[in-house]
Known about the structure:
It is a single chain. This protein has 2 helices and 8 strands. By secondary structure, the protein is of the alpha/beta class. It is globular.
Amino acid sequence: MKMNPVGWFEIYVEDLARATKFYETVLGVELSKLESPNAEIEMMAFPMDMEAIGATGALCKMGDVSPGGNSTMVYFNCQDCATEASRVEAAGGKLCQPKFSIGQYGFIAIASDTEGNMIGLYSQV
């Protein structure tokens, strides 16, 4: 079976409730609590539809890992990334770059979440 090389992601946060609200508001999805074998790790999972294309992951609050300032950026699929980008600031984040063309590959917008993590919003149109 062929697999997408990205199998899972974690976005590290300090305030799990605040970050959860941000992503639910911007992406229009509902995150769910993900049980952890370690009581010191709290996680809220993005929707996990195994029939859908793309990887899934979770917001993760872990005592010894700080958010922001990292070199990995997660791109979220959107119907039109301008829609999700328009929700970023009202949800407490910062829109770093509004929707722009990446040529034949579509469009992206770049934002910073409530925890200082950079994220990308991607769409074909």
